[in-house]
Amino acid sequence: MKFNRNQKRMFFIGLLFIAAAFLVWVGFGAEIFTKTQVLVEKQDELLGTSYKEWEDQFVLGLDYTVGISGLIILSSSIIVWPQRKSRS
Hints:
Blueprint: H1 5-27, E1 35-43, E2 50-59, H2 62-80
Antiparallel strand pairs: 1-2
Helix pairs in contact: 1-2
């Protein structure tokens, strides 16, 4: 399949958005699953002991990143499809 200029442009824009999504995922720590809370170890100043506590924090996971990438592929395909040239 040959792409015309508009199709190539949309293809590369889609790849750019997918690469950006994966860079954001790596920036969040490259976790496999999305988390809404993380376990943090805290120090008790009075007794000098440490304890673990859950804190609310969003960590993007690979599950959401793949879903976003799938939506980008779907929307890019929908945009590229009507731009094809008829060969008659």
